[in-house]
Amino acid sequence: MTRTHAIAVIPGDGIGPEVVREGLRVLERVAAVEGFAVRLTRYPFGAEHYLKTQEVLPDAAFDEIKGHDAILLGAIGDPRIAVGYLEFGIIARLRFGLDLFVNLRPVKLYAEHLCPLKDKRPEDVDFVVVRENTEDAYAGMYGHFKKGTPDEIATQEILFTRKGTERVVRYAFDLARRRAKGKKLTLVDKANAVRAMDLWTRVFEEVGREYPDIAREHAYIDAATMWCVKNPEWFDTVVTSNMFGDILTDLAAMIQGGLGVAASGNIHPGRVSLFEPIHGSAPKYAGKNVANPVATIMAVSMLLDYLGEARAATRIEETVAGLLRSKRIPSLSSDSGLSTSQVGDLVLAALEDAPVPR
Ligand code: IPM
Ligand code: MG
């Protein structure tokens, strides 16, 4: 019997539906080539749906989504709606509600000409950031006192739990062990100023003792942004807190060619996990068929890898890498000269010829 994967699809706002459309074409074709099946359930959540129905993400839909093997999400965010409202109601709800404690963000340069850094080649930009995904300032413990007055006080708690820190650090050590490259894990924090991060320092040290084969390194977040630009080859696997990971990975996306290629997985090993491009909904490009779908196609590759379809994942990755190296996809921005669907066509046409080890 063929393997079937149940996938919930939330195209979302702005360019989301267009890039997801191409991601799904690639998903269906690669399934046919590799001989497995996918069962897709589409969900309409996002700004349009909210404006029509006042629904953000109803409990019944949340429970149904939970019953899938994985989720593919396009983008959420719309200028007509209050900042953060849908982002928190949908993205954060799924991250927290499904306890997706790892935000996995590979940083890989596929073709030298895509890198804005001088003299950096694909072998210099190849690392992965493991961002904690359920704690920190994102836990949403904030408040205002005397709001709107000159004496207003605004607070937001940065919180870390022992359990939350330990599980993500352990995931990162395991990942460092599986990666072929450096067998090195770098902890990025700000323990010199955010003293609560002493918890990260201790957990990293303690868990690290169980992984004597993995070299441990450390960088403060400010220095890490400098290294990311100056010596990206220094990094192999990086583990960091939610907010620092958010910031570091936008910077890191630029050195791999931009947000047009950067994908991510929101993961709880063994449970339904969510995959998405790092970029946002880019409302100004919505509906024009100009947004580059490569990041979403790479998110599909990560999703398949997570579901155990390693060959299909590699097939997609190698296809995209080949098209970028040969400049048949000349750039990753919306002015590449290729439409969203043309990029999809190129990937579909090249999929079968991708070099995939048997
Ligand atoms: C990301 C985004 C989100 C985040 C926003 C949309 C809430 O920037 O996935 O990196 O901050 O996590
Ligand atoms: Mg971000």
Automatic annotation (TrEMBL):
Keywords: Amino-acid biosynthesis, Branched-chain amino acid biosynthesis, Leucine biosynthesis, Magnesium, Manganese, Metal-binding, NAD, Oxidoreductase. Pfam families: Iso_dh (PF00180). One of its GO terms (biological process) is L-leucine biosynthetic process. Its EC number is 1.1.1.85. Residues 6-347 form the Isopropylmalate dehydrogenase-like domain. It is an enzyme of class 1 (oxidoreductase). Its cofactor is Mg(2+); Mn(2+). GO terms for molecular function: 3-isopropylmalate dehydrogenase activity; magnesium ion binding; NAD binding. Belongs to the isocitrate and isopropylmalate dehydrogenases family. LeuB type 1 subfamily. Homodimer. This is 3-isopropylmalate dehydrogenase. The lineage of its organism: Bacteria, Candidatus Eiseniibacteriota.
